[in-house]
Specification:
mainly beta, seven-stranded mixed β-sheet, four-stranded antiparallel β-sheet, 11 strands, 0% helix, elongated
Amino acid sequence: VQLVESGGGLVQPGGSLRLSCVASGSIFAINFMSWYRQAPGNQREVVARIISDGSTHYVDSVKGRFTISRDSAKNTVFLQMNSLKPEDTAVYYCTAAIHDGLALRDYWGQGTQVTVFS
């Protein structure tokens, strides 16, 4: 199983970016998919999560600005980020809890850089 992110880049404060993450390989079921981020000198933190039933959860700092969604048919999760702030600058990672037919495992993408600057 592989997770591949895309959509990071440079943006000015107040701007928007949309991250995508596609899961491929031996996928029997996906329990949930999440976006984490890690800024230099900081611990990795969960930003948003979408569960198999469609319910979503967000860290307080992004509520009202970020939206997580998915295309289950394509094993893809998105993170729409609006009203970006400099403190959103980080490497963003996609993760997924995937049952590959043998076991439930956590998988991570390689990360995509998001930089918000004036």
